[in-house]
Amino acid sequence: MTDPTADYKALCRREAAGARLTMLPFLNAKPSDSGRIGPECLSQWYRCYFRSDHHRFSSAEQYMMWGKATTFDDARSAQVILGATNPSKIKKLGRGVAGFDAQEWARVSHGIVYRANLAKFGQNEELRDYLLSTKDRILVEASPVDKIWGAGISAEDERLGKPSQWPGTNKLGFILMAVRAKLAESD
User: Fold this and answer.
1) Where is the NADAR domain (predicted)?
2) What pLDDT digit, counting tens, does each position of 49-86 carry?
3) Residue ranges making up the domain that contains 84
4) Per-residue confidence at 29, pLDDT binned at 50, 70, 90?
5) pTM (two decimals)
6) Structural domains of the chain, count
7) Which of 123, 150, 175 is the last residue of a domain?
8) What does the DSSP assignment read for 32-65?
C-alpha cells in the first residue's frame, strides 16, 4: 500500500490537471433506517465483526486501537481494548496507551488501519459489495474536526470537490480506496 500522503498529493495533481472527480463523503457510523448498507459502513466506528491476528474485532476502530497498544507493547491496554465494544470508549482507551510515540505511530498507523479494513471488508460480503460498488469515487471522511484521518471539512462544505483546499489529508479515505482496489483484484 502506498503512503496516503502521496495519494493525497496525486489527487491534488489530478484536480489541477482538470480531472473530473466524484466524491463520496462519509462520517456517521449509524446504520440507515432502511437497513441497507451505505456510506456509514466506511466509518471506522461502524459495528461489524471480523477476525484478524487471532482475535475477534467489533469495528475497525477497535482493531486500530488494539494495534496501537500492541505497537507500543502495552499488553494491559490491548486486553482492555479487546474487551470493549463502544467505539467512543475504545478511542478513549487508545489515547491512554502507555509508551506512545507520535512519530512511530505516524509511521505505522496507516498499515494497521489498512489491515483492519481489509479484514473488515474482506470478511463481510455486504460491506465488500458496497465498497466495490463505489467504483472510482473518491472516498472522503468528511469530518470537520479530523485533519489527519479526515479531510477536515464537512460533507456540505463547498471545498469537498477541491482536494487542494482541504485542511486535512483524508488518510482514511485513501486507505479505503486502497482496500477497494485490493478487493477488486480478487474479483
Assistant:
1) 40-183
2) 999 999 999 999 999 999 999 999 999 999 999 999 99
3) 49-123
4) confident
5) 0.96
6) 2
7) 123
8) PTT----GGGGSTT----EEETTEEESSHHHHHH
